[in-house]
Amino acid sequence: MPDTVLFYVFSAVAVGASLLVIGQRNPMYSIMLLIASFGALSALYIQLDAPFVAMAQIIVYAGAIMVLFLFVVMLLNAPQEDAAQWDRTHPLRRSGVGRFGAMLAALLTVQLVWALLRVSDASAVGARGDVAELTSVRSVGRVLFTDYVFAFEATSILILVAMVGAVVLAAREEKR
Amino acid sequence: MDQATLRFIIQLAIIGFTFFMLINASALLVLAERKIMGFMQQRYGPYLVGPHGLLQPLADILKLLFKEELRPKGADKWLFTLAPIISVTAAFAAFAAVPWGGETTFFGLLDTPVKLGVADVNVAVLVVFAITSMGVYGIVLAGWSSNSKYSLLGGLRSSAQMISYELAYATALASVVMLAGSLSLRSVVDAQAGYWFGFIPRWYLFLQPLGFIIYMIAGVAETNRAPFDFPEAEQELVAGYNTEYSSVRFALFPQAEYINMTTMSAVATDLYLGGWHGPLLERWGLGWLWFLIKVGLILFAYIWVRWTVPRYRYDQLMQFGWKWLFPAAVLNLIATAAFILYFNA
User: Are strands B114-117 and B195-196 parallel, antiparallel or unpaired?
Assistant: First the structure.
């Protein structure tokens, strides 16, 4: 019973905060709400007996990535968006971009419905063995370095390429 | 009273005790810092309030409580209030996953032993790391929401510094986790019980001397202490991120800093110094006194470093973090992995 109550509380926080993220005009508030949403998500992971995933979520997303977001917003010192001007000039308001966005949203909805229909059998997860064992650090590490080693290494090279690219771009800026 | 109720009450008492000790730690550290600083600068330090100035922290808190709370006109109302709360909450919450004593039945009061510590989490190392990394938001938001150039510079410096030193810090942690084969701080401590050759304690300090040094340096940087106290460098930024704060809101920042120092020292004790394991006291069920002594020694070293080493320059800080500390931590990690493979294969 308390589990169910907690599940609804954290779900409400996650959904509510995510909705508010896109409803904010102040980018600083958006970032803080996104962090709150990540926090609620990681609480849900803990409820699913996956403490490692929960902590990874906080360390990687709420801890590292959002600090970078905050850093960028602070450096640019983005002003509060003016509603009237935003409506007229924002590139997202152009019809082509708008249509593309609508298409993406529709695609995402179809995907979500399809995924939800597929896993409607709630016992499917439990049938595959102990959840806590499946998501333990040991088994995650083993699977990452055996079955998914190609994807893992490819991702690391992708990140390395992005990093080198950023360094090259920043260095070129300095010479001018 | 049945055992279940008794257990519940004792668990609550342990949580309350931990909270009480943390609050006291921040008060005592303020006094200790000023006393030790006085000693090092050949003067007395606070000595008027109470015997030998022992009540000075109480006087400081009372003074701060009765000060007027000010908020700059252009400050962001919500974030300005939220920032110190985030700082101090993250500081307290991080300690929840730190065990500070072995198992005890409280002299036969309980039929099954209870573990000393707020929560026994099986990914405790990650929990402490995750929550302490949340503390940076308090500082960054304080810097941004104050609408003051000194505060903003302090906040920016703090976020850059914490991102840089978190890497070395986490890599040093990973080496110990590999040695112990567990992410639970309690198992890491229990893996350090006993002695080599009958007299050298099996502390990871002796297996990971480089890791310990890296952990301590990164820890000092993470808690924004001198010689890495750039977010509040007095000579450059007035007081850095907390320039515009006053009264209780101001008091929460140093409190968070001192509690973070305590957490950092407690985790170092658990990871490298064998936690509550030690001769004699442990046999009488007072192992947690060893824990206190070890944490106290590390905290003394913290203060000692602050008043003997001058502040770095900002570019030196970044160069040191990325070009020396992080590569050293990675080398230490690889060497540890090779060591484990060689001796366990």
Answer: unpaired
